[in-house]
Amino acid sequence: MTSTIHADVVVDVPVGVAYDQWTQFESFPDFLSGVDSVTQLDDTKLHWVVSVGGVEREFDAEITEQRPDEVIAWRSTEGELHSGRVVFTPESAESTRIDVEMAWEPSGFVEKVGAALNIDQAQVSSDLRDFKRLIEELGTPEGAWRGEVHGGTVTDRDSDLARETGFDERPSML
């Protein structure tokens, strides 16, 4: 049984601010409940540790599509299904709609019941409200990465602009 989740929120920051903060994957535990850690292995690879219904699980994911100020999409690379897409749409010069669509494969009784009762949907909606609070309080992103990913391949067309703005790269993964 695959669970599909749709949620959205409007944040009162420009699209570039919302997008740039979202590219700081290792900060996800600050607003995503159930996410214990995200380790960025390189520009397209992430290692997740999550707790769902009291059960810890780990998985690797790859970013399959990323266009600055527009979209970030990912999928798990092994194990159980986990994929998603986040779309950033300017509502005005100072506000942004963030639309999230995720699919995951619940396993075990607690996860399957939670998905059947749409508890996962409610949690993602709550997490988006937490992101809204976080980015509106910050006012500026904690970092940014302005490269692009198409089909899992990185193109860095915005690297000169990123260096000019001081957001050169994602944190080093030493």
Short recap of the structure:
This protein has 174 residues and is an alpha+beta fold. Helices cover 25% and strands 40% of the residues. Strands 1, 2, 3, 4, 5, 6, 7, 8 and 9 form a nine-stranded antiparallel sheet that branches.
- CATH level 4 superfamily of the domain at 3-25 and 64-160: START domain
Oligomer: single chain
In one word, what is the shape? globular
The overall pLDDT average reads 84
Number of helices: 4
In percent, how helical is the residue content? 25-40%
How many strand elements? 9
SS strand fraction: 35-45%
Under the CATH scheme, which class of the domain at 3-25 and 64-160?
Alpha Beta
The CATH architecture term of the domain at 3-25 and 64-160 is 2-Layer Sandwich
- Spell the H/E element sequence: EHEEEEEEHHEEH
Detail the poorly predicted runs.
159-174
Distance between the termini: 38 Å
Largest sheet: 9 strands, antiparallel
Tell me the CATH topology of the domain at 3-25 and 64-160: Alpha-D-Glucose-1,6-Bisphosphate, Chain A, domain 4
**CA radius of gyration:** 16 Å
Structural class, from secondary structure content? alpha+beta
InterPro entries: COQ10_START (IPR005031), ORF3 (IPR047137), START-like_dom_sf (IPR023393)
Domain Coenzyme Q-binding protein COQ10 START: 11-131
Protein name: Putative membrane protein
What does this structure look like?
- This is Putative membrane protein.
- It comes from Microcella alkalica.
- Residues 11-131 form the Coenzyme Q-binding protein COQ10 START domain.
- This protein is of the alpha+beta class.
- It contains 4 helices and 9 strands.
- It has a domain at 3-25 and 64-160: Alpha-D-Glucose-1,6-Bisphosphate, Chain A, domain 4, CATH 3.30.530.
- Strands 1, 2, 3, 4, 5, 6, 7, 8 and 9 form a 9-stranded antiparallel beta sheet that branches.
- The longest helix has 20 residues, at 119-138.
- The protein starts with a strand and ends in a 9-residue tail after the last helix.
- 21% of the residues are buried.
